[in-house]
Amino acid sequence: MLNALDNVVILVCIVGIAFVALHFAKSSQDMETYYRANRALPWSLMVGTLMASWYGGNGVVGTVAYSTTMGLAGYFIWSIGAHAVRFPLALWVAPRVSVRARGTMPEILRRHYGKFAAIAGAIVIVVSCLSIAEVGAAGYVGEAAWNGNRFLIATIIVLISVAITCLGGLMGVAVTDMIFFALMVGSVSLVFPKLFFSMGGMAGLADSMQAQAPELFTPFGGIPAAQAVLLILVCINMYKDPAFYQRFSAANKPSTGKRAMLTCFSIWLSFDMVCIITGMVIRSQDFALATQPEISYVRLVLSQLPGGARALFIVGIMGAIISTMDTYYLVGGEIISNDIIFMLRGDKALPAKTSILISRVACLAFGAIGLLTAFQFAFIYDAVILVTSLSMGVLFVPVLAGIMYRGKKTNVAGIASIVAGAGTWLWFNFNPVTLESAGTIDAVIIALPVSFLAFVAGNFFGKDLTAEREGIFEKALQAGRSLEDSGLNEFDRKMIREAQAEVQSDPKDLKVAWLGIDGALVLLYIVLACIYGYGLLHQVDFVVGILAPGIAFAITAFSFFKYCSEILAFSKGKKNGKK
């Protein structure tokens, strides 16, 4: 469906992005720069990279496809729930992650539960970094756009993602995320009103599907109870999502990550409206879903756009996929190099160049595994749910306890929780339980409570590693010895320094400004959620077809131009000899 002009525009965009990656490759030669971007990400860039990392192929194409089966429940259960339960992550967790020396999840597990729990958890996290759904999305988008082989096109996109990750590190990933983020939200939002009103708005959609699936137009209809519970659990998956911890630790100050994520909530909510209603448009035109809905969506949008604009849409969608893939490839590579191998070598850190090289090799391995598994699922969102279900059942309890629970946590509790969660998930994933009234029960619904009970029971046994570490340090201080002479190993000394940094941080950075920017951003989300919900229930076309995409586009444009102005100001300062 793309013509020569479209392909030329796409080629120019790819070349431009390659230059960005090459530019940052020059400065990404040490671990602090490569993995943490020198902790220099500003608010605007944080908004772009958080948005693009979360809304990749599964966030756009996948949400559209999955919404063909959920209807309005996608908004009232998935979208509102997904973001509402994540406010504590933005308000309280993000600032604390930012003041730590690093912020990887295996490090959190090791701090409280020891090496075994950290290595086991790291392996599960790496599985979640394979970006299987994104690879599938790339293939479907390519098939729709070029009528080409989905595996071949997915391979090309994987190679581009690996190249951006390997060359530019986190800063290269973040800057390209910003570009992709703007193109993705802009192109999808601008084309939506035409699609929506061509169907006659909400009334036209309801009329076209009333006889076949009226439940899709009810707030909680269209999905079985077990699936609704699973979606809510998927919503809180971000609390153990390693990519967000990496981003928070790379912010230029603790409040930056917090306010960037609070801003993203309003963009996500608005963009969800666009994607969910688009999914219902697809279903109304092909109720039996005879064509893969991911492919139908791309073809429908391309049919509504002129030459050149089609190219920007494809770059935006493919860019969203690439930005998510390179994010998780970088995180997974870091975990293999700086966590798993570090611990297996007896806490001996690798040289910077070796660490980066191993991360780059890991990225290639991730891409190969993704290509081998991506097209084995009916919907690309099925891959998301499978991987999320596994990682939730194994890691959610010990990770959340490590971050939020300030009481006693023993090494036995963490190990028991991980082992019990993994065993339960594996058993019920291969031996599923089905209830007539609720549908098939996903393994994570059983694994989570088992993991929690194992944590509680295990907490009666073993050692409190945090208290033990702090006790040794206190005795060293009383004896007049320094931290370096305390007898603690390198990792434990690092944990003490991180705890001190958190205690010594400015309380204002960790405080929620309810009467300031923080409170205003929370209020904006609540107001938008109410307006959008009213618009859906009362079929207010202006709210659904104009306001939602308009707000998504407006906040995106502001963030993008804010970043451009910061870059311009920085460049002028350098030119004038300012530091």
* Average of per-residue pLDDT values: 83
- State the helicity in percent bands: over 70%
The CATH architecture category equals Up-down Bundle
Strand content: under 5%
Q: How would you classify the helix and strand content by structural class?
A: mainly alpha
What does this structure look like?
This protein has helices at residues 4-25, 31-36, 43-54, 58-70, 73-84, 87-98, 105-113, 115-128, 132-146, 150-198, 201-209, 225-235, 242-249, 254-285, 293-303, 309-344, 352-373, 380-404, 411-430, 443-458, 465-478, 490-504, 507-510, 517-537, 541-575, and strands spanning 433-435, 439-441. The protein has 579 residues and is an all-alpha fold. 77% of the residues lie in helices and 1% in strands. It is built from 25 helices and two strands. The longest helix is centred in the N-terminal third of the chain and has 49 residues, at 150-198. Helix 1 runs parallel beside helix 16 (309-344), helix 3 runs antiparallel to helix 13 and helix 8 packs antiparallel against helix 16 (309-344). The termini are far apart. A hairpin with a 3-residue loop joins strand 1 (433-435) and strand 2. The chain has a two-stranded antiparallel ribbon with strand order 1-2. The chain has one domain (4-392, 506-575): Sodium/glucose cotransporter, CATH 1.20.1730.
